[in-house]
Amino acid sequence: VQLQASGGGLVQPGGSLRLSCEASKRIFSINSMGWYRQAPGKQRDMVATITSGDNTRYADSVKGRFAISREDAKNTVYLQMSSVRPEDTAVYYCNVVYTRYGTVYNLWGQGTQVTVSS
User: Fold this and answer.
1) pLDDT tens profile 58-73
2) Helix (H, G, I), strand (E, B) or coil at 102
3) Is 60 exposed, middle or buried (0-12, 13-18, 19+ CB in 10 A)?
């Protein structure tokens, strides 16, 4: 199974962007799906996650601005970004944690660049 992230690009401060991450095939027994980001010279940090029970969690820096959602029929997780700021500039990675035959797998997408600049 592979994850394909898309939707990144250049956006002005205050603007909006929607990231998508699609799995190459249906993944069963998903524990959680999420988005992480990594700015140059910094570690990769959690942005938002959503569990199989649709419980969501957000980094404090994006609360009220970003929204994570999932569409199981399309094997896709989304990140709606609003009121973006220059400090949101980073490579965004999608993540899926799932269990198969008792083993937990941690799957990462290839990353999509988001640049917030005027």
Assistant:
1) 999 999 999 999 998 8
2) coil
3) exposed
